[in-house]
Design brief:
Layout lengths: L3 H30 L11 H29 L5 H6 L14 E4 L5 E3 L5 H7 L16
Antiparallel strand pairs: 1-2
Helix pairs in contact: 1-2, 1-4
């Protein structure tokens, strides 16, 4: 079974494919219908679809970019991370961002991975065949 990070990365790649398909449909509609005339008094139903698909593709692109940025910050920590962030070396494999507590020496104890942020990001995919049921939030 894939790690949560690998699972989410694969889902985001699937979403990017959907974005590409929407943009291809918009390009074909533009060839057939021509560009949308912003001064037209009426918008043809196909032009409305063109606008909706463009907005959806833009939203998917922005959404995936934001989700990938979260993954950059919430991943299993490595030995290099623990040195860099001042965390105790026993934090290897814990979340690289989420701090559970600090000790008297100033060391951070990182939260277990997957952290609550990653677990929350997994939830929209509970119906996916590769989803790990152990990650489902009740």
């Amino acid at each position: 079974m894939n790690s949560p990070h690998e699972f989410l990365t694969a889902r985001y790649a699937e979403e990017e494919k959907r974005e590409t398909i929407y943009r291809e449909i918009v390009a074909r509609l533009t060839v057939v219908l021509g560009p949308i005339d912003p001064d037209a008094s009426e918008i043809h139903a196909a032009h409305a679809a063109q606008i909706a698909l463009t907005r959806t593709a833009d939203r998917i692109a922005a959404d995936v970019t934001a989700k990938r940025e979260v993954l950059v910050h919430h991943r299993p920590a490595t030995a290099e991370d623990t040195h860099e962030i001042g965390a105790h070396p026993s934090n290897d494999g814990r979340c690289s961002s989420c701090v559970a507590s600090h000790d008297e020496r100033g060391y951070c104890e990182q939260m277990d991975y997957p952290c609550p942020t990653i677990v929350a990001m997994l939830q929209p995919y509970t119906g996916h065949p590769d989803f790990d049921p152990a990650r489902r939030v009740a």
